[in-house]
Amino acid sequence: MTTNPPLSKLSVSPNRRRRSDFVIVSALLLLFLAGLVGLAAATGWEETAAQVARLSMVQIAVLLGLSMANYLLRTLRWHVFARRLGLPVSPAQSLRHYLGGFAMSVTPGRVGELVRMRWLARETGWSVERTAPLALVDRAADLAVMALILALAVSLATGGMGGGLAVAALALLVAFAATRPRLVAALVTAGYRLTGRLPRLFARARIAARSLHRFGHPPALAAALALGFAGWFAEGYAFHLLLGWMGSDIGLWKAVGIFVFATLAGGLTGTPGGVGGAEAAMIALLALEGVPMEVSVPATAVIRVTTLWFALALGIAAFPLAERCSTRGRDALEDR
Fold it and tell me: Which parts of the sequence belong to the Rhodanese domain (predicted)?
């Protein structure tokens, strides 16, 4: 196995490194603020606060607990993938990397989540092209699991989600394609031939694609799918409970299917946090099930607060710790 040269051998002065860190963190902060402004404008702080206030503290705690279960299960999946890739990280490192990355989940196109690759590079010495497959397979695993949940929901529920199977099939197809080393490498090569530019970037992308075969181990894949399924189902179940508390119980699998469908729809828009697309899809599907607007609108707002906004809050809390620990990790590597 080839290894990267020790960071101590890279001729980067402390002043230059500090300037580079400042530029990167500033850029991430600007992306975060841009996404946050869009998110706040789309949801409306006052209306959302009023809707959340209708629930009891116990009910809010249950919703947040189910969301937390999702994040912890997906963190464990991230750690399984990281170890499968060969990254020398501990569960504590994976926890702060994954949760800290949520702070950037509202950046346009979610590009800010690549900060996890930066933390890994600083703590392990692995280059971005070696860790990039981790981010790709994590996103592909989410697509695959959500497609499976949606397909199951459509098969067990009736009405309201006629396009669910098509969306599920598309998500599964994308997830499958994203984890095929030869296919991804061929797409990268085709992209370079089409543009004829950025040869170094495309070369790094091809290097990253070759590492995807490490995730084809059946036991690891089965564990990853099980963890992801349980995590996303937990949030769908939270939506089911919420609708019941608001007097519009449409059934478990319909609620789960609507939540997952809306989440996928929001992700396809590329907007920060899927804002706009997710809410529109959720309200429209609830309307098809006969849920009145006075319930569907607040239910949508509340579930987004206890999922998206809660993840954002966790990310903001974990981000400074992850950044500080990654700096210490880089310094430790340089001292070796």
Answer: 204-241
Question: What Rg, from alpha-carbon coordinates, does the chain have?
Answer: 21
Name the burial class of residue 68, with classes exposed (0-12), middle (13-18) and buried (19+) by CB atoms within 10 angstroms of its CB.
Answer: middle
**Residue 173: is its pLDDT beyond 80?**
no
CB 162 within 8 A of CB 288: no
| pTM of the complete model beyond 0.90 | no
* Strand runs labelled E in 8-142: none
Residues with Cβ within 8 Å of 306's Cβ and at least 6 positions away in sequence, in order, are 60, 63, 64, 67, 238
User: pLDDT value at position 177?
Assistant: 62
- Determine the pLDDT at residue 222: 85
Cα separation, 308 vs 300, in Å, equals 11
Residues 232-261 as b or e (16 or more Cβ within 10 Å = b): bbbbbbbbbbbbebbebebbbbbbbbbbbb
Rounded Cα–Cα distance for residues 38 and 47 (Å): 16
Q: What is the mean pLDDT of residues 145-162?
A: 75
Query: Three-state DSSP class for 336?
Result: coil
Residues 6+ apart with CB under 8 A from 25: 323
User: Coil, strand, or helix at residue 159?
Assistant: coil
pLDDT at 180: 61
Q: What is the pLDDT of residues 241-288, one digit of tens each?
A: 999 998 889 999 999 999 999 998 887 766 666 767 788 889 889 998
Q: Cα dihedral sign for 59, 64, 70, 76?
A: negative
Return the H-helix or E-strand segment holding 258: helix 252-269
Residue 160 three-state SS: coil
Tell me how far apart the terminal alpha carbons of the chain are, to the nearest angstrom.
20
Between 253 and 156, the higher pLDDT residue: 253
Instruction: Assess contact for 204 and 128: CB atoms under 8 A.
Output: yes
Cβ neighbours of residue 81 under 8 Å, at least 6 residues apart?
134, 137, 138, 141, 215, 220, 224
